[in-house]
Amino acid sequence: MLSSLTTKLALKKAGIPSDILDFQQQPEKSSKSNQDDQQPPQSWGSWMSIRSLPLTVQPWLNPPPPSVAVGRVPGIGDKAPVDRERRIVLGGRRRTLLVFLRCVGCAFAQKTFINLRTLSNRYGDALTCIAVSHASEQATQKWVSLLGGAWGVRVVIDEDRALYAAWGLGTGGMWYLFNPTTQVQGWKETGWLGEKVAGAIQRKGLDDKKVPKKAAALDDDDEDEDGPLTVMGNKWQEAGAFAIDGTGTVIWGGKAMRADDVMELEDGARILLA
């Protein structure tokens, strides 16, 4: 009984319905005709697929690779990677605090975003604050609205994770997510909004994830129809934060060391505005 209770609590904390592993309930057998009764039972794969799992489970699955190869994390003094799609334009005398978020609904992403929003409100036009989300635009907008809005933060959608890859942010391993520090901090946090975001999306009748335009343009035949949905982002995606000065040079930041590492954005802002 204790084991069952512990499992249910852990699933609830992760945003996964507690009955997801309950396979005792069998679908009612159709009795339309004798012919239906004589048909062989359908296999597991005919009614169960990865994409049929709840939307809150999808972020825990292994994500598809980004549309470009994961590069090197820019170091202090390096020129910032150039976004060919010009979603993010750095330099030009603008001092920018650039944050790459974890998946929407994550309590650590929430703390990071709120910290960035506070800095944006404090420094106004002196500091350009940009948050990059790899969840869908619909999920990101809902999550941001639950947090009270973006205020002065510009939110950029990077669902194919090309920007993440260009800045050296790939997917973390087991230790990145399940190390003791992250687990302890995870139990302390209360800002887990994954279920609310997923519920809002499902109420709007989301049928399937649309393929990012860039990924589709690269190769329509490479789409994995059986892969996990990335509407909510992915738990394994690495986060990061960088401060870029007016010449387009990185002067602070790097990759988050663990999933719970929200990074000291105040340090980046202070160095930029010194």
TrEMBL record:
InterPro entries: PXL2A/B/C (IPR032801), Thioredoxin-like_sf (IPR036249)
Disordered: annotated segments: 22-43
A Pfam family recorded for this sequence: AhpC-TSA_2
TM regions (residue ranges): none
Organism, as annotated: Fusarium falciforme
Upper classification of the organism: Eukaryota, Fungi, Dikarya, Ascomycota, Pezizomycotina
Superkingdom, natural source: Eukaryota
PANTHER family in the cross-refs: THIOREDOXIN DOMAIN-CONTAINING PROTEIN, THIOREDOXIN DOMAIN-CONTAINING PROTEIN-RELATED
Annotated protein name in UniProt: Alkyl hydroperoxide reductase subunit C/ Thiol specific antioxidant domain-containing protein
